[in-house]
Amino acid sequence: MPSHFPQLAGSIVVSIARRHYRVLELLGEGGYGHVFKARCQEDGELVAVKFPKTDQDSPQFDDEITLHRQLAHPQLAALLDWGAHFAVFELLHGRTLREHLIKEGAIAAITARAPMLHVLEALTYLHEHGVVHCDVKPHNIMIADDGAKLFDLGSALMMAPGAPGGRLFSPAYSAPEQLLGAPPSTKFDLYAWGLVWLECLTGQPVFAGPNVERLYRQQVADGEVPLPAPLIGHPLGELLRTVLHKDPRQRAGDAQQLYRQLLDINLRDIPRGAGVGTYRYDQSTQPLPARSDVTG
After folding, report:
1. 135 tagged catalytic
2. Which residues form the Protein kinase domain (predicted)?
3. Catalytic: which of 55, 57, 135, 282?
4. Is the pLDDT of residue 6 over 60?
5. Which of 14, 169, 210, 282, CA to CA, is 20 to 30 A from 79?
């Protein structure tokens, strides 16, 4: 699609076989594509249509559609249809976790448990099918009417011996070894899941900086990710510590096991906004390590 396509909403109709979708408005964009709300002209159904950002062939976009065609889970955004250079997804009703945190602030732990469990359900399913999402973050979690849903497989990779990294990702939520080009692992996603949990509790990202280099340095720096004071010694804090080890050799990698453990933890004694403003990880003055310094 041409680079000015986002400005053409309302005047574009895309077709697949006997179904026609009129593009209505831009919903958002990711690393590889623009997503629009659209309406099926045959039955009036509202959907989300995704187009690659470039009018050239996009292997990453094609890979995303290929993956989606093999997957179906209640906690994943559903692929409904696809055509040449676009894909049709269910339209998720609600708002992203990122939007919720901006508007409402921190979430009580007891409230955050349900959506975080839903994300673990989605990750368990993906990992069982050999897929690493590689971009778990509040922006890609929709708090929908029927529970939280994980979406955007644009950065997803298959787990396989010698599988390369190299896809676009979000440094603020990327495991150190992911940034250093390690082969895809379930531990990428669970590290990010742990960071999202902390962001739910505090209302702010653990890692923040003025540029990508600063975020990169924070992630690959030595030292553990700090926990808010109310989590020190709490079972939830102990659980999160297992997924937030900088060294992947020490990090948990089983989403289903984490799901079971989280179900058993009493969260009522953790206050909303636990530790807000009391911590921020910044060891960004350290030199960048060589790619071989962090392995998985």
Report:
1. yes
2. 21-263
3. 135
4. no
5. 169
